[in-house]
Structure formats: C-alpha cells, structure tokens
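Input record (one chain):
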Amino acid sequence: MTVRVRFAPSPTGHLHIGSVRTALFNFLFARHHGGEFILRLEDTDTNRNVAGADVQFLDGFRWLGIKWDEGFDVGGPYAPYRCMERLDIYRQYVDRLLATGKAYPCFCTDADLAAERELAEREGKVPRYSGHCLHLSEAERKARMASGEPFSIRFTVEPGRELVVHDMIRGDVSFQSDDIGDFVIVKSNGIPTYNFQVVIDDVEMRITHVIRAEEHLSNTPRQLLVYEAFGFDPPVFAHLPIVLDEQRKKLSKRDPHVLPISTYESLGYLPEALINFLALLGWSPGGEQELFTVDELCQLFDLDRVGKSGAVFDVEKLNWMANQYFKALPIAQAAQMVGDQLERAGIELPPHASGAWLEDVVSLYQDGMRCAHDFIELSKTFFQRQVEWDDEAQTLLRDPSARSVVEAYLAYSRASEGDWTPESSRERFKRVQAELGVKGRQLFMPVRAALTGELHGPDLQKTIALLSREIVIERLSAALAC
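The corresponding structure, as predicted from the sequence alone:
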C-alpha cells in the first residue's frame, strides 16, 4: 500500500503557523514512508474565502521547501483538487444517499433551528436536530421542493450507537450517535458541508492516512457514518496535539508573537529554521539533538513519537533556533540577505562603502541575528551620519578622564596617515595608553561611547575601520563639543 496523505487548507486567510505544522507533519510522514503528499483546497466556505489566499499558500510552502506530489496548482490523477470544482462529484454521492433513504431534504429555517437549540439548552440537553423533516411524506417533500422552497440535505443518524474513532495518537475515542443527531451534508445553496465533502474527497483521492489538528476529532464520528453509509473503509486517523501559546491557551492567529509565514520570509528568516522548529512542536525524535536537516527529519519522523498534550509555541526557542541557522550562514549569503533588507527599507550604503564593506559589517553582528532584518536596528550607527548618545554614554562622556581619552584618540586620528584599518586603530590606542596611563574599559569605552552613542557593541577596532576616518573624526569632535 502506498501511503497517501493530504493537507487541505481553506483559503480564508493567511497561512497560520499551526496549519503549517500540520502540513509539515503530513509531508514528513509521506516522505518517511515513501508515500505521496497531496495539496487540496477546501474552498466551499465561499462567504469567507479571501482572494489570493491560495497563491499565498503555494508561495509559503515553496519557500519552506514543503513539496507536494499532486495539488490544485499542478493537478494529478484525481483532479480537480479544488472542492468547488468537484460539485458534480459530490452530487452523485448525495443522490445515492437520497435513493437509499440515508439522507433527506430538510426545510427547517434558521429561525426553526435556533428555537430548537434554545429549547434544548433550557432543558439542559445537548442541542441536536429534532428530526422534524425526517418524518415528512415523500409527497410533501416533492411538493415543497417543486415549489422552490429552500432546503438542505441531512444525513440520517441511527440512534443509540457507539461510534469509536481509532486514532494513532490518542488510541480509541468513543462518541454517542445520540449526541450527534441528523446533520446537514448539503447546504441550501447546494454546496456540501465539510463533514461530507472531506469523506468523498479522501475516498476519491485514495487517502490512506488523515493527519490533522485535534480540533477535528469531534468531526470524525460524523465522517465515520458517511464512510459506513457507502461501504468504504475509513483511513487511519491521527489527530495532532493543539498548538498553545506561552500561557498554554490555544494559539491565536492574532497572537502578536507569532507571525504569518509570509512575514517570516519577508524579514529574512531561514526556512530551514522554521521547519526545524515546527517539526519539534509536538514531536520528539528522542536524544539530545535539536538541529535537523529536512532529510534527517524525513528519515526520523513517524507518528509514534507525537505526543497527546498541547505543544507550546516557545518564542524564545524559535529565536534561538533561528539564530543558530543564521549565524551558520556563509558571510556572502548573509550579506546578500541583509542587502535585500536594506534595499526594501530604502537604506543606501554610505559613500565610503566599497568592496566587501557590507560583508565586514554584517560579520560584526551575524552571531546575534535571528534574521536578516535584525541587521537594520543593530547596525544603524553605520548608516546614519550623526550619532545619538544614550544616557549612559552621555554620563561617561562628561567624565574628565573619559574626555581626555577621546581628545587623545581624536588627535592621533587626525594625524594618522596610511591605511585606515583595525590594526592602525590598535596602534593609536597604544599611543593613548602610553600617553595617559589608562587601559581596558577606561581606554576603549569612552571612544566607543563617542563614536556609537552606546557603551557596548561589536569589535571596536573593526567598527572604527568600517566607519571611515572622516566619520570617526567628525563624531569624536561632536562628542567633545557637547
């Protein structure tokens, strides 16, 4: 048997991080078992569909490196892969249920159904459909349909049954049919509901394993009834643990600490970092290793090590992992990504920048960066003509001994001839040390404060060389004039 799994998003918004985790687990499971991964678009909620969302899904998955074998963009042997293009297929299955009495037209209005729900709630019962239209005569049904009265199609649920979902992660989970009631499988607009459509599509597309979010577990007994009505064997189910925020509540699409995939891409995160992080969100490979290539993940991943408990989206862990990947980049690639960010932000290189200048500046900050966009804030001292001194820097620069160091270094800078390099800067500091008898923090920190406006930062000698002689002299002079 060839393993066939699918990810079937609804184009109702951006690609949420929890959905990406589900898609990734499907992809890894398929590759681990030498199977096929299908990308289907469940676009039947026409009122909520967002134009262009389907394209964003494709772009996001391509950036992440999640590859599919069949889908709504590339086609495949079971096309079409957009649900709204499959309405004729669903209709054939609906007609079979109607012909065998396993489904029936329901003429109840929204107001009728709301009244039923309110009555059940007042009586302390689980709200479910009363079955009113189940008992209409065939003649009345035909007459009302012929008159143009709106109707939906409901599936007939046999009462008094226990429905057991066999789940690879959660074991057997039982539901009672009496808690379900006859449910709608086709809305009054002719579009099938999720619990019907998903069964037909999974059957038609030969899906062997359904790996999806925990929130779909409660839908599964309805889907089992549909499989049973047609005599189909259900696929293997695996319901993934819910993704939680750091307060252990369900992760919201609007959580400010969790970004859409397109935003991570635009900020210059590495897709490998996101894949690595999401793979460990509910799955454990065992051992102490935390960084994995996609090939390693495909080799190791299986559902037997996916947990039941909610998986916390740990922002600090993501930041750490993103940093591990970014600082391991070849400097040329990191500088290229940073260059893209600078261009997008409308920031030009300073006039004295030439050759490998940007690579040299990036190398000062790369070890502390999560993404290319971090560079803009970290390196602003290199891209602004005038420096702004923070409170600590101003306090230090008011100290007479600190001012003496700045004055001495400025004098040697003005007198400097030859190349402006880190080595020549070290020589100037040696002269200041010999002249004033200071060393360590008392020697270097005043100059750093005057040049960058801060007491701490990357390698000072490289910073001075990359700022250029003109800017160093200008900034030291400005600091002394305050």
